């Protein structure tokens, strides 16, 4: 296995495919617009939902996304871990949305 690429949340390209592996209640509190949501524990069963190409994997702080990214990399996926997770995303002023229209926040 090669070293896993890591990028600060502030430097994730605007056109990146963001895979959010947080739990449902975390996602519902606030997420990046256009992100793909598959909770960490569901990744192995939902691989068919992953698009081809590079995936930027994110969680709340970076730990779960690192584990998922390593696992995906071992299974042949092109992945980048988002360092600092959604907390760093919000701290960097990157936009958050909710599906409900409520004020988004990182849970």
TrEMBL record:
Q: What is this protein called?
A: Rhodanese-like domain-containing protein
Which CDD domains does the annotation name?
RHOD
So which domain of life are we looking at? Answer: Bacteria
Q: Which Gene3D superfamilies does this chain map to?
A: Rhodanese-like domain
Cite the Rhodanese domain residue spans from the record. 12-98
The scientific name of the source species is Kineococcus gynurae
Cited Pfam families = Rhodanese
Instruction: Identify the PROSITE patterns for this entry.
Output: RHODANESE_3
